[in-house]
């Protein structure tokens, strides 16, 4: 049975903690049940609020985890007290720990030049028995049909159980939805910047900053030119959520 889901701005967030999220992944692999998993910080909820097609992609996923303390606090306020943050890097590490004991094969899609290689080196050092099926780092542009088919063929030939997708949001969510029917792996997981953080390509906020809900400020300070537009919408996010809580706003999760 999948965890309950709670609509926030029309996106159905799974009321999970890390243990429950890992359980969903394990069951999906055991059942060979195809699906994809999204991780939702506040900015992805805003993207889904503005784009009904993206909202539909998120709501058709196997699970949308609360990847942000603001989302965690909202779920707890709605009665789901056991919910905790399911953060991309932590989910990847927790899954790798299980994967090496269960023999799961992992494939990695994403990362700039050299990032995937550095990520795999670090993961193999930490999890010596990890079974890595392969990796590919697509260029950050639209692919031709031939290039796209080649990537699908590479992944399917490697026969992974999990495909980690680090293409950045919302590109990775669209990619998973577009490729779900063409990939044999039962689980696809979009983990955004986890490739950069775990490879050492970008600094990760200290744990106390993550727990305080101020990770966005840390990331803004490290990449202001790239991220300022993303985080400038956070005050609006707060207003919209407040309006929704008061019954002044309703966003239909099923809107086309």
3D architecture notes:
There is one protein chain. By secondary structure, this protein is of the alpha/beta class. The chain folds into two domains: 190 residues, Rossmann fold; 38 residues, no CATH class. The strands form two sheets. The protein has a six-stranded parallel β-sheet, sandwiched between helices. Strands 1-2 form a two-stranded antiparallel sheet. α1 crosses α5. The longest helix is centred in the middle third of the chain and has 15 residues. It is globular and about 50 Å long.
Topology of helices and strands:
Elements: E1 5-8, E2 11-14, H1 18-31, E3 35-40, H2 42-50, H3 52-59, E4 63-66, H4 69-77, H5 88-102, E5 105-110, H6 115-126, E6 131-136, H7 145-158, E7 162-166, H8 171-179, E8 187-190, H9 194-199, H10 207-212, H11 215-222, H12 224-232, H13 234-245
Parallel strand pairs: 3-4, 3-8, 5-6, 5-7, 7-8
Antiparallel strand pairs: 1-2
Helix pairs in contact: 1-5, 2-3, 11-12
Numbering strands along the chain, what is their spatial order in the largest sheet? 4-3-8-7-5-6
In terms of DSSP E residues, the strand content is 15-25%
> Helical segment tally?
13
Main sheet, how many strands, which sense, barrel?
Answer: 6 strands, parallel
In terms of per-residue confidence, which ranges show pLDDT below 50 for 5 or more consecutive residues? none
Q: State mean pLDDT (0 to 100 scale).
A: 94
Shape: globular
Helix/strand/pairing category: alpha/beta
Task: Quote the distance from N terminus to C terminus.
Answer: 27 Å
């Amino acid at each position: 049975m999948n965890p309950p889901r709670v609509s926030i701005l029309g996106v159905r967030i799974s009321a999970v903690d890390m243990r429950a999220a890992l359980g969903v992944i394990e069951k999906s692999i055991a059942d060979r049940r195809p699906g994809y998993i999204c991780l939702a910080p506040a900015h992805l909820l805003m993207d889904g609020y503005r784009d009904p097609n993206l909202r539909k992609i998120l709501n058709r996923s196997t699970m949308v985890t609360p990847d942000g303390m603001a989302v965690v606090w909202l779920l707890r306020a709605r009665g789901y007290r056991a919910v905790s943050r399911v953060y991309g890097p932590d989910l990847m590490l927790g899954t790798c720990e299980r994967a090496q004991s269960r023999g799961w094969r992992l494939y990695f899609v994403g990362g700039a030049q050299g990032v995937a290689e550095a990520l795999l080196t670090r993961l193999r050092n930490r999890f010596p028995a990890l079974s890595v099926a392969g990796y590919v780092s697509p260029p950050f542009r639209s692919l031709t049909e031939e290039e796209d088919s080649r990537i699908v063929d590479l992944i399917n030939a490697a026969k992974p159980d999990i495909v980690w997708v680090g293409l950045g949001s919302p590109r990775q969510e669209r990619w998973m939805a577009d490729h779900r029917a063409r990939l044999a792996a039962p689980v696809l997981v979009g983990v955004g910047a986890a490739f950069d953080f775990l490879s050492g390509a970008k600094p990760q906020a200290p744990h106390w900053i993550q727990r305080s809900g101020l990770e966005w400020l840390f990331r803004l300070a490290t990449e202001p030119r790239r991220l300022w537009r993303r985080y400038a919408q956070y005050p609006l996010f707060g207003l919209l959520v407040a309006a929704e809580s008061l019954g002044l706003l309703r966003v239909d999760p099923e809107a086309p």
